[in-house]
Design a protein that fits this description.
Elements: H1 2-14, H2 17-24, H3 26-29, H4 42-52, E1 56-62, E2 71-77, E3 83-88, E4 100-101, H5 106-116, H6 120-144, H7 161-204, H8 221-231, E5 236-241, E6 250-255, E7 268-272, E8 279-283, H9 290-303, H10 308-319, H11 321-339, H12 343-358
Antiparallel strand pairs: 1-2, 1-5, 2-3, 3-4, 5-6, 6-7, 7-8
Helix pairs in contact: 1-5, 1-10, 1-11, 5-6, 6-7, 7-9, 7-11
Length: 359
């Protein structure tokens, strides 16, 4: 029950991760109102980071064009392959922070607790097991109360504690089961995928120790950034992944305005050769396979970002339902265990009563 409670509590908070980060770190997360209207060249921004931290390579970059959120650069230390991140104003080129670990900020620490239970790879595996158990609870609850309309509005407030807790358990379980199943399934998928990735990258293969840039210095990343919309119509780049392994190339992930509200901001992608800058591959979510579209939708489904503030509030509240279900379920379990009196004890109590009645 403990890991389930931790995952539920942290998950409900993390629905509003961006809002919390902006509240806690406004100088790092928010673009000042007096900033210029156009972005500084990506080449200039990256060169600025490299000049300040020459013993690091840029691993990835979050791109924002809404004049509200600042860019985030993720950098990798030479020889150690340790990742850190820093914030910068993409409209002035000003670095707004020094590098910090990926779990140093409060909400990043919460995310690590939610995803790994602060146990690294072992925590990812444990999180996958907990997610599968939560999935089972959601499905079994729907099976047990498949005639939900008979119980949904039943809440006997003045009844005995056991009956009242039982009604709460059924009502909340029925209302939250669809969301619990979505959260559990998507969470289990990501944890299992990460476990497989860890095994492939750190057990089957020897991790590459980064000591220098792996892409040609003649490539203009700003030019590639501007060309993305020529490769995929209406493409808006939101994330840049740089090659930090010899097998990797330069990849832009981005969003496209579609009629599907579950398409994420990273639903489409374009990869460029790290030596020649030629297009290697591209994937437009509008023409992608059903599997790609489904897996991509997990991001918005898990965090409730598909219908603005309304869906976030619903996901935040129903995401806490396992806490209430755990408390009420534990009480009902304890009550039933308490009621199971061993047969020998029953006979002893009867004898005592008979003796008392005799006198």
């Amino acid at each position: 029950m403990l890991p389930l409670l931790l995952i539920s509590l942290t998950g409900s908070i993390l629905v509003f991760k961006v809002e919390l980060d902006t509240l806690l770190m406004p100088a790092k997360m928010s673009v000042p109102d007096d900033s210029p209207s156009t972005r500084v060249s990506l080449d200039t921004l990256m060169a600025s980071v490299k000049s300040k931290y020459p013993d690091h390579e840029i691993g990835s970059w979050e791109l924002f064009t809404d004049h509200q959120r600042t860019d985030t650069a993720y950098i990798i230390a030479h020889q150690t392959n340790e990742w850190s991140k820093l914030y910068l104003n993409q409209y002035t080129g000003e670095l707004l922070s020094s590098p910090v670990g990926l779990s140093d900020n409060f909400t990043d620490w919460l995310l690590d607790l939610h995803f790994k239970l602060l146990l690294e790879t072992n925590g990812i595996f444990l999180g996958a097991l907990v997610s599968l158990l939560l999935l089972f609870l959601g499905i079994s609850g729907m099976v047990l109360y498949r005639k939900f309309w008979l119980y949904f509005f039943t809440l006997r407030v003045k009844a005995a504690t056991r009956i009242f807790f039982s009604d709460i358990h059924k009502m909340i379980g029925i209302a939250s089961s669809p969301v619990i199943i979505i959260l559990a399934f998507t969470g289990a998928y990501w944890n299992i995928a990460e476990v497989i990735h860890e095994i492939e990258e750190h057990v089957i293969k020897t991790p590459h120790i980064l000591t220098k840039s792996l892409h040609s210095k003649d490539i203009s990343l700003q030019t590639l950034y501007e060309k993305t919309s020529d490769t995929i119509n209406d493409f808006e780049a939101t994330y840049l992944l740089m090659p930090y392994d010899p097998e990797m190339h330069i990849t832009f992930y981005g969003k496209i305005n579609t009629s599907n509200p579950l398409n994420s901001d990273y639903a489409s992608n374009i990869s460029y050769d790290k030596s020649s800058a030629e297009v290697i591959s591209s994937e437009d979510v509008r023409n992608a396979s059903a599997l790609h579209v489904t897996v991509d939708s997990f991001r918005k489904l898990h965090f409730g970002h598909f219908a603005g503030l309304a869906s976030k509030v619903v996901w935040c509240i129903l995401g806490l339902s396992p806490v209430i279900l755990a408390i009420t379920g534990l009480y009902l379990f304890w009550y039933r265990r308490r009621r199971r009196v061993p047969t020998s004890n029953v006979f002893i109590k009867i004898r005592v009563l008979l003796v008392k009645n005799t006198y």
